[in-house]
Amino acid sequence: MHNNVVGDGHNSINELIDIKNKQRSAIGFKEIKVDTDLVATVKSKGFEMNNIIYQGDSLQLRNVCNFGQGGEVKCIDLFLANAFVMSTCNEVAKKANLRLAGLNYIGEDITLARTPKFGFNEINAYPMPDVHYFADIEEDKPLNFAKKL
Fold this sequence. Notes:
alpha+beta; two-stranded antiparallel sheet; 13% strand; disordered C terminus
C-alpha cells in the first residue's frame, strides 16, 4: 500500500514521518525519504510539511506503491482472504515453478466476499521473511501469516 502517515492532532507531517521512520528502522525497514517528490505529493494534497493532520486522518505521501520508497505491507489473515484471489496466487506461483513466492497484490480489499478487481505487479522468488513476520508495524507486534504454497 502507499506510504502514508496518520494524523494524531499534535505532530506535524515531518514529525509523523520521523516517528514512522523510527518504527520502520527498529525492524530493519527502509526509512521514508523526504525528497522533492514526497514534498510535491504532500503539496498536491493541499498540505505543507509543517502542517498538523487531524487525528485519525491519513495522508498519502507518494503516488507509488513501492516498498523501497516507504510503501507498506498490510498483513491479512489468510483465512479472511478471498478464495479466488488465494487460488490465483497459488496458480501464479506454480506456473513460475516456485514452492514459495511473494506476490505483490494491487487491487480492492482482498477480504471482499465477491471477487475483487486485482492484479499483481511483481512476483518475488525470494520473499523477505521480515516483511511477513513483521508485517504490521502500526500494531508494533510480529505477525506471521506466511503459508506454504
